[in-house]
User: Which sequence fits this backbone?
């Protein structure tokens, strides 16, 4: 093997795609299988949104959002077996999945200062992992295109909108989330958020040119994880 070829143990893998395509579950599974760290950047945008709402700041006021975001302190786990995220010492892992946060997160994520802040933190998390010779799977919307353009493998994970909505509805029902209504209203919410995330001026959801497209519409979770692990092994040493 070429000595410059990275091994999967120290690989940096970017997984991007629209809401509900399976990024979190697949990234966690790949990280477990390959012994990598795992970073959920969507959880970071959600945690900042939680802080903005806690402070009573309207998500539609970019200057106030930027100021609330900059004064919040985030801590998170990169252990794929134990995900948590804290804002100012408070564990918000469950609270960030509530509808109030889901409804406001796209507006908060569109504020350039918020993106600059979180992109810095995300790159720092990758540097910290690599400093101790640990690879990492980072999932989000702009990881391969903007945050980590030199990632060893970039995956663009997609699934049909109806399938994404049905999977998210089942997840919400299993978690007992109070806002669950129907997979039709979840489909409308996913479509609204996909459109907002894809059309914003600052770093929209984008497929990196060198990303490999994986379509999870007709694959179970284990099959998608196996496909991404296979791509990583193909590209790097086992
Ligand atoms: N290939 C798949 N087959 C069946 N269910 C899946 C698959 N991928 C993900 N899921 C389920 O769909 C839901 C949404 O997945 P998630 O990983 O949260 O998506 P994302 O991070 O892209 O929003 C979860 O309940 C997850 O377990
Ligand atoms: N790298 C990222 C990750 C998420 N975001 C934004 C876009 C999404 O609407 C929110 C929440 O992301 P999250 O991955 O938790 O969303 P879903 O699990 O797909 O519902 O954050 C982003 O702008 N950039």
Assistant:
């Amino acid at each position: 093997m070429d000595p410059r070829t990275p091994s999967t143990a120290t690989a940096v893998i970017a997984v991007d795609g629209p809401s509900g395509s399976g990024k979190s579950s697949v990234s966690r599974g790949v990280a477990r299988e390959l012994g990598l760290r795992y970073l959920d950047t969507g959880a970071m945008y959600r945690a900042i949104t939680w802080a903005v709402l806690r402070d009573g700041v309207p998500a539609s006021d970019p200057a106030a959002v930027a100021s609330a975001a900059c004064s919040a302190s985030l801590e998170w786990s990169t252990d794929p077996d134990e995900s948590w995220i804290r804002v100012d010492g408070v564990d918000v892992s469950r609270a960030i999945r509530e509808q109030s946060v889901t409804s406001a997160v796209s507006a908060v994520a569109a504020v350039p200062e918020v993106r600059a802040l979180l992109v810095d933190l995300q790159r720092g998390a990758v540097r910290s992992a690599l400093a101790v010779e640990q690879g990492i799977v980072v999932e989000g919307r702009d990881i391969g295109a903007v945050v980590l353009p030199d990632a060893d493998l970039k995956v663009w994970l997609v699934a049909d909108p109806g399938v994404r909505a049905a999977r998210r509805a089942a997840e919400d029902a299993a978690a007992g989330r109070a806002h669950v209504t129907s997979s039709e209203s979840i489909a409308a919410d996913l479509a609204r958020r996909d459109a907002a995330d894809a059309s914003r001026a600052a770093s929209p959801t984008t497929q990196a040119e060198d990303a490999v497209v994986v379509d999870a519409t007709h694959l179970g979770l284990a099959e998608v994880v196996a496909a991404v692990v296979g791509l990583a092994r193909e590209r790097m040493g086992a």
Observations:
- The pocket of deoxycytidine diphosphate (ligand 2) is lined by residues 19-20, 41-43, 45-46, 105-106, 109, 140-143, 193, 197 (CB under 6 Å).
- The domain at 8-233 is CATH 3.40.50.300 (Rossmann fold).
- The first helix runs from residue 23 to 34.
- The chain has nine helices and eight strands.
